[in-house]
Amino acid sequence: MGQKKCEFLLLLLYCGVCATNASLDALRHSDCHSRSISMETRILENYLTNQHTVTVIESSTEIPIVSPYCLRNPVPLNAFTLRRFQLFVHQSLEQNTQQFEYRMNECFVGSGHSEELLTELLPYLSQYNPRAKVLLITQDMGDQQLAELFHVAWYRYRLLQIIVLNHRGNEAIESCMFNPFRKGLSSELRSLPTVKSDLHCNLLVDETELESYNRNLTRFIGNRIYHLKGYPLNIAMHVSNGSTSAYDCILGAVSFTDIDQEILSIMQKLMNFSLILHKNELELSIGYIHQNGTPVGTLGLIENNLIDLAANSRIIHNYDTKNLLYLHYISTEKLVFITPRNYFKNRDKTQVFINPFSVAYMLTNVLLSFGVPMIIFLLEYAACKLELPRETRGYSFGTKVLNLVGIIYNVSVKLPRAARKRWIIVGLLVYNIVSYPIWQGVTIRYLHPSNQQVNNINSLEELIETDLELRVSHYHEHIVRHEGPHFQNPVYSALSNRLSTKDTSSLRDSIEQIIIHRNSALLIADEYVPLVLAGNYKWIPGKPDAIWPIQKPVYEFYKSMAVPKTSPFVGTFNDIVLHCVEAGMTDRFMHQLETVVQLMKIRRIREHPSVPDYIVFNMEHLQPLFIFYFAMLLLSSVIFLLELIVKRIERARSPQAVQQVEKYVPFEFTL
Fold this sequence. Notes:
By secondary structure, this protein is α/β, with parallel strands linked by helices. Among the domains are: about 35-225, Rossmann fold, CATH 3.40.50; about 350-455, no CATH class. It contains 23 helices and 18 strands. It is elongated, with a radius of gyration of 43 Å.
């Protein structure tokens, strides 16, 4: 871009040097203080407000251009001959084949007769910058020729900001402008021939008239694009069932006015224009680029200047088009995927019960519970077989090991001497170790029956690993494919490769695929996700709440309406959009959307009463666990009492003999 600007400046400098001599020759034979030149200069000064450059195009030796060189506050001047300007436009078009940036602070001053202006100057001005201000100087042009000049300039070349200064003799100037939006149309809304009465002309014979003329001229230029008096504008907008939303299949009888339609109504009220609506599906109303590079839908209409405003706001994206211009941004749009709910089905059981951690935990404790006592038992057995003296057996090792095991398993009581009873204790320890994670998992499953964080897809990485067909509208596909590589992320690269536009022209069909077939995921705007979740989907049999959104947005963009770059209403539309955004209309729309979602939820509950998929936690939900726990306590107490009774009876029946009291050795295995 920088190289092109340098070439542009060098070319201007070269052409300016070549063409300035001709202009200076005109100055030698003219007087800046003559009445007509003085009036022409003051008109030009008023017209050049906020203009940065003036380009003089010398196209006629009979009608010299003098006023730009007589400005009291000089601005940068570029001088061309007509032929060199035509050559410059050709070179600019060849170098810049993608997009044009039409600057609004440019002004062109040209001169010539009617035929010369229509065929040799206006076509090139239109190609180079149709939004620039143009001052044309003529001599004794007839009324019909003036009308024809303005008619061709607007209806063929889209040049609106033209002032024609038609010199009448040596002392009078006729200044004319054109407002096509005050002109009548045919019954077919086609343009009628332009006549002199359709022009806004003033005959100036004295400099004292210039002050009021300049005020009226400024007012005329402003009113021309702000007050259209019912003039019809071509507006592209998706309107269905009283709403501009693609979600009418979900809304049903509920309708709402979205932010785009509300801003359009404000524009219509302030500018006083009538509507010629171009109705299409939302996808075509927003427009997209076909795989062969052709603009489709509204983008094609804008490219060919067939509409004045694309009122459905769309993501601000740098398409490979020449005539697309976005207004000030209205809101942001975040794209998220909606997927089938509980796609993984029984993954919660796998993650809670059969996962590497729980399996390793149980196996380790089981091995410790059985392995350590068995090793000690084998050591004791080997000591016995080797007939080691009893006093040399040493119980310190076994005692310390089993004491350590008791500490590990939180056993703080002395274990019995008999091997049978010790194995019972070991079995209880095993039960305690194994049952703890099982009952913990049961509790988690019981208190969280929806399993939202377990059975659903909750990240883009999980989505990429599934076999789901990732679907996206034609409009979003072009943006995502071109924005994805800039993130330098392999996940986005994989996402871009898997996107498909199959069966996405209808949101209804896309939702059916997710709910019924559970084989796809759809990329949509996150602000409408609550609307999708609140729908009852009467046309789909089965459970309606079968959609789950991935909460984290995939992409985030600015949104705005679009216009052709050649539109004269760019400034007007921008002022209104900016005012609406600053007044908080975006927040107001979001609150309205929340209200609609709540109404739809109420309607859904009335039509399909159902138990919510969540349980408020309270102690009542642990009742089965407490019943089992106390039953086990009761059973262990009964067994303990029976053991005492049996032991008491055995002692009563056995002969009383004085036994030598031996020192108690804990964890001693009796063979």
